């Protein structure tokens, strides 16, 4: 049976991501890889992660979904939002700016300006890729999304874009209004259950292991509506 492999919140953790693909014995063309967003910020190698994910999508048929950090990076680098710029450095953006700028010294403003220059010259395809990513993916038994589904919307596809990217409550504490299991990232599982393993709730599966905050990167293998195996690799530079 074809495997679906799900990973979320890589956050610039390039080495753990590749460790995890190896641990899961990822087979391009045979397995369906689904990535639930937040490819950048906090970890040291965001540029390399984005480049790799572009290849996984274009060459291997992986499915990549947009996360809130991905949206924020594009807004900052394309100068689309002053609010995003204000939040950028406080939420791990400096590491991403350094990754694209190729420098680590200087003020955050200086590093961001260098990053903008490099992106305009060499990496606009990264920004276009992130900007055009979908907010969810759906198959026969599961809905895959970065943050979650707002239970106040009976037609979940009509919920605000921000909910797909940012929601925590009331999604985490209230029952869903869908008949499929929601697989999500965004909220670290250690904040839900006290450990960084995959969280299995009622109609929900949380997989953000908090790799970029020193915990682990989780991978979920799905081979049926209730057939799962999970993998984890620890953070390393």
Describe the structure in your own words.
This protein is an alpha/beta fold and 237 residues long. Helices cover 36% and strands 19% of the residues. Helix 3 packs across helix 4, helix 3 crosses helix 6 and helix 5 crosses helix 6.
Oligomer: single chain
**pLDDT below 50 for ≥5 consecutive residues: which ranges?**
none
Strand order of the largest sheet: 3-2-1-9-10
User: What would the average pLDDT be, to the nearest integer?
Assistant: 97
Sketch the major β-sheet. Answer: 5 strands, mixed
Summed up, the helix count is 8
- Total domain modules: 1
Present the secondary structure layout.
Blueprint: E1 4-7, H1 14-23, E2 32-35, H2 46-60, E3 63-64, H3 68-77, H4 82-88, H5 93-101, H6 108-131, E4 136-138, E5 142-145, H7 161-166, E6 181-184, H8 189-193, E7 199-201, E8 204-206, E9 216-224, E10 227-234
Parallel strand pairs: 1-2, 2-3, 5-6, 6-8
Antiparallel strand pairs: 1-9, 4-5, 7-8, 9-10
């Amino acid at each position: 049976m074809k495997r679906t492999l799900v990973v979320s919140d890589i956050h610039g953790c390039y080495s753990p991501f590749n460790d995890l693909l190896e641990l899961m014995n990822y087979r391009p063309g045979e397995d369906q890889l689904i990535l639930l967003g937040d490819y950048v910020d906090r970890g040291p190698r965001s540029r390399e992660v984005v480049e790799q994910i572009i290849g996984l999508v274009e060459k291997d048929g992986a499915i990549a979904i947009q996360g809130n950090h991905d949206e924020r990076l594009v807004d900052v680098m394309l100068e689309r939002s002053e609010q995003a710029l204000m939040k950028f450095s406080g939420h791990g953006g400096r590491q991403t700016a350094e990754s694209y700028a190729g420098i680590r010294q200087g003020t955050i403003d200086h590093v961001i300006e260098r990053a903008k220059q490099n992106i305009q010259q060499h990496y606009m395809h990264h920004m276009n890729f992130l900007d055009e990513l979908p907010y969810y993916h759906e198959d026969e038994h599961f809905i895959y999304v970065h943050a979650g589904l707002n239970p106040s919307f009976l037609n979940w596809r009509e919920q605000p874009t921000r909910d797909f990217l940012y929601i925590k409550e009331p999604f985490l504490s209230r029952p869903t209004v869908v008949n499929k299991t929601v697989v999500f990232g965004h909220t670290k599982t250690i904040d839900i259950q006290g450990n960084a393993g995959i969280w299995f709730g009622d109609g929900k599966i949380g997989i953000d292991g908090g790799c970029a905050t020193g915990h682990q990167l989780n991978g979920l293998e799905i081979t049926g509506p209730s057939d799962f195996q999970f993998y984890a690799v620890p953070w390393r530079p």
